[in-house]
Write a structure and sequence with these properties.
Pfam families: PLAC8
Organism: Periophthalmus magnuspinnatus
Strand content: under 5%
Order of helices and strands: HHHHHHHEE
Structural class: mainly alpha
Number of helices: 7
Strand order of the largest sheet: 1-2
InterPro entries: PLAC_motif_containing (IPR006461)
Shape: rod-shaped
Family: Belongs to the cornifelin family.
Helix content: 40-55%
Protein name: Plac8 onzin related protein 6
Largest sheet: 2 strands, antiparallel
């Protein structure tokens, strides 16, 4: 007897890399460290959202104040929202509480993890189709040189007739 699963039943996967796996992709880590806003805008664009969406996190006065204090005052909305969206799109295990904690405590690490996830998920194998192409040119046509005064029917008269 076949078992029928409900339509909303889904197989959940783990994140491809852990939150602090910076050395899995050092290029992403450097990108996030030296230009965090650029990395977050790249993640937003790859998720087909507005590229400028993460700038709300960097321009929020409460978040800017938390940088001075050292303790986050509020949850960065773009980091949290895009993390939840990415987790739902790829059916990654987790919870909203976990997303809140990660976005609140370590938003830069969250952006790096999301960037690594998108890079790994969007890698498509390169299919190379090699065909043997033979460029055939027609054989050169050899024309017989016709001596002067010779026509196709024999010798041609040379003077007035």
């Amino acid at each position: 007897m076949a078992q029928v699963l409900p339509a909303d039943c889904r197989v959940e996967e783990e994140w491809s890399t852990a939150l602090l796996d910076c050395f899995e992709d050092s290029a992403t880590c450097c990108y996030g460290f030296w230009c965090g806003p650029c990395l977050s805008c790249t993640v937003s664009g790859r998720m087909k959202e507005c590229y400028c969406l993460p700038l709300c996190d960097y321009c929020n006065p409460a978040i800017l104040a938390s940088c001075c204090v050292g303790v986050p005052i509020c949850i960065p909305p773009a980091a949290f929202g895009l993390r939840v969206a990415l987790r739902n799109r790829y059916k990654i295990k987790g919870s909203l509480l976990n997303d809140i904690c990660v976005s609140w405590c370590c938003a830069p690490c969250s952006w790096c993890q999301m960037h690594r996830e998108l890079k790994l998920r969007n890698m498509k194998p390169n299919v190379i189709n090699i065909q043997n192409v033979v460029n055939m040119q027609p054989a050169p046509v050899m024309h017989q040189a016709v001596p002067m005064g010779m026509g196709p029917m024999g010798p041609m008269p040379m003077g007035p007739i």
